[in-house]
Amino acid sequence: MVPIVLQLMFLLSPILYKKEALGHLGWTADLNPLYRVLSNLRHALIHGELKLDHALLILLANLIGLLLAVGLLGRQRHKLPFLV
Predict the structure, then answer these.
(1) Model pLDDT for residues 15-40, shown as the tens digit of each residue
(2) Is the same domain home to 14 and 46?
(3) Is the domain of 41 the same as that of 10?
């Protein structure tokens, strides 16, 4: 189920094409979290400029997620062999 959802998210997000190609449904791209993260990379590759405020916000979100994951792993370490 998860691979199907991830593939649909990738194909439905305007990563391979411009957001404007969606027409009046362009607002749906902003709801896709994959597009929100990859749009900055796409913009930097196409236009050669980095949106520093967006990049720092994504970096901060990734660091918070990493800290939460490490904290959860530390608390659940004793149960981990039974979950695998």
Answers:
(1) 777 778 878 877 877 777 777 778 78
(2) yes
(3) yes
> How many CB atoms are located within 10 Å of the residue 35 CB?
19
User: Which tokens go with 17?
Assistant: 């094409």
- pTM comes to 0.56
Residue 25 contacts residue 5 (beta carbons within 8 Å): no
DSSP notation for 20-36: GGGGGGTHHHHH-HHHH
Domain encompassing residue 9: 1-50
Q: Which is higher by pLDDT, 54 or 65?
A: 65
Residue 33 burial class via C-beta count within 10 angstroms: exposed 0-12, middle 13-18, buried 19 and up: exposed
Domain shared by 77 and 39, yes or no: no
Q: For residue 45, what is the enclosing H or E element?
A: helix 33-47
